[in-house]
Design a protein that fits this description.
This protein is an alpha/beta fold. Helices cover about 50% and strands about 15% of the residues. Among the domains are: about 15-75; about 105-165, no CATH class. The chain has helices spanning about 15-50, 55-75, 180-190, 195-205, 210-240, 295-300, 315-320, 330-345, 345-365, 370-395, 405-415, 415-420, 435-450, 455-475, 480-490; strands spanning about 105-110, 125-140, 145-155, 160-165, 240-255, 260-270, 280-290, 305-310, 325. Strand 8, helix 7 and strand 9 form a beta-alpha-beta unit.
Length: about 500
């Protein structure tokens, strides 16, 4: 039977104090019931996990503690407090002090002396007056070092004015991490798929106590500093006449629930090198908390041209507006037949794979040629193959059960035939959407390691860094060296010239 509250006595015979005690007792009972409900919910989660999912030793230990707490609640009767007490902390917790950097680390001193040779006030001679020294932790591939930023103070012999060079800019204002260390943390997480807690353990072996929360703060600060560059990258990607688009799920921690929800990372790739273009390739990622069609519609609001993507229904509303035309992906079609061939050794699926393979053979021969040449070859050689494939698919479909998996695969191809064959008449288009799938592969690999993003803002930060890392790779740059260079310069770089820091424009200092 469900638990119920104690029945109310006759209120007419109770005085004010008795009523107050009764209310307090009922309040305590309610709180006890709420706690019990929450604990029982967690026990249900445990049972579900034991039956259907992975077991986590850490979580099981928490469940055991909750079980003990539940037993205490059941054994403790409700008592009415005689007086109301409120726990007041004796002292307000202070802000954690920054730990000093280990003295064992090598130190490199960089002196920033004033540019003036004489007092700017009166022209008098300058003499040493002291100095300000601050430290910045830096990472040089293979080891850590501490950069000592020394700023000598000079004072005028005549008027005693103090002259000192301004403090050099840092990627994160007043931050401890140098640009090289920030780049290393970012690339380790988003390119090498090393979660922050594992990085923290690695740094601890080097004698550095860098908590995961500290590293997370650095990631947030760096992504904020890089935001103008990511926006410039987005504009460049969206100015193309053809894009590759795709998305992938990303587990995201839902605040206050202890559970994860499914967010999405969307990728848009600009890469016309297979069509002989010399324009730089680039990729832009965007995060959304769900997969509603309104998100790609917002992402592509400034884009006009062809979008090569899979058959996601959320794109349909975009195509209906007319500014964006759909270009299909033969890789998705082939994959459906390949799965059936692997599972059932289907001769029909094998025939479909062979026919699609002929189309890909033509593409391998013309990769890198101009759009005009590609269009001419496709119309002459791929056109007849596509017509033959279309007739064969229609004839085969009539011989199959409507509910069979082969029929589903064939209907998938026939239902998108106009989009799938559009590449034959436009040499700038590709036969598939593999450019987007290659870009999003890094997310799929990282997802296996770090399990989930901590929040929606964490997903947005991931999208920003994935954009820069992915674009650096597309331009054959070392992403860590690229980010180190950008973070070294971005704090002092004019915002109206931010495009100079894009991967294909940046020149080493």
């Amino acid at each position: 039977m469900p638990a119920t509250l104690d029945p109310l006595p006759d209120l007419s015979v109770l005085d004010v104090h008795a009523l107050r005690d009764l209310v307090l007792c009922q309040h305590e009972q309610l709180r006890s019931r709420e706690t019990e409900i929450e604990n029982l919910k967690l026990l249900v989660i445990k049972l579900k996990r034991m039956q259907f999912g992975r077991k986590s030793e850490k979580l099981d230990r928490q469940i055991a503690q909750l079980e003990l707490g539940l037993e205490d609640l059941e054994a403790t009767p409700c008592t009415v407090p005689t007086t109301s007490t409120f726990a007041v902390p004796d002292t307000v917790p202070n802000k954690p002090a920054r730990r000093p950097l280990p003295q064992s680390l090598p130190r490199v001193t960089k002196t920033h002396a004033p540019k003036q040779d004489a007092c700017p006030e009166c022209g008098g001679s300058l003499r040493p007056f002291g100095e300000d020294v601050s430290e910045m932790l830096e990472y040089v591939p293979g080891h850590f070092e501490v950069i000592r930023l020394v700023r000598p103070k000079l004072t005028c012999l005549a008027c005693e004015r103090i002259v000192q060079a301004p403090a050099p800019s840092r990627p994160i204002d007043r931050g401890l991490a140098g640009p090289g260390l920030l780049a290393h943390v970012l690339v380790s997480k988003y390119a090498d798929h090393l979660p922050l807690y594992r990085q923290s353990e690695i740094y601890e072996r080097e004698g550095l106590e860098l908590d995961r929360s500290t590293l997370a703060g650095w990631v947030g600060g760096a992504s904020e500093a890089l935001a103008p560059l990511v926006e410039q990258l987005r504009r460049y990607v969206m100015s193309a006449g053809k894009l590759h688009g795709d998305d992938t799920p990303v587990p995201v921690l839902a605040p206050g629930t202890g559970k994860t929800k499914t967010g999405r990372l969307w990728t848009y790739v600009r890469d016309d090198r297979p069509a002989g273009s010399e324009e730089a390739p680039a990729v832009w990622f965007a995060y959304s908390p769900d997969r509603k069609g309104e998100h790609p519609e917002h992402h592509l609001r400034a884009f006009h041209g062809f979008l090569q993507a899979d058959g996601y229904a959320g794109f349909n509303h975009i195509y209906e507006k007319g500014a964006i035309q759909e270009a299909g992906c033969w890789a998705h079609v082939r994959r459906k037949f390949f799965d059936l061939q692997q599972a059932h050794a289907s001769p029909i699926a094998a025939e479909a794979i062979a026919r699609i393979g002929q189309l890909y053979g033509i593409e391998a021969e013309i990769r890198g040629r101009s759009p005009g040449e590609r269009r001419e070859v496709r119309q002459a050689r791929a056109g007849p193959l596509l017509d033959s494939l279309h007739h064969w698919l229609q004839a085969t479909l009539g011989q199959l059960s409507k509910k069979s998996e082969l029929a589903v695969a064939i209907r998938y191809a026939l239902g998108r035939w106009t989009a799938l064959t559009r590449y034959c008449d436009d040499g700038a288009l590709e036969i598939d959407n593999n450019a987007a799938e290659r870009a999003i592969r890094a997310v799929a690999l990282g997802r296996k390691n770090y399990l989930f993003a901590g929040s929606d803002s964490g997903g947005e930060r991931a999208a920003a860094i994935y954009s820069l890392v992915g674009s650096a790779k597309l331009n054959d740059l070392d992403p860590e060296a690229y980010l180190r260079e950008v973070l070294e310069r971005i704090a002092d770089h004019p915002i109206n010239r931010i495009a100079e820091l894009l991967p294909w424009n940046i020149t080493p200092c």
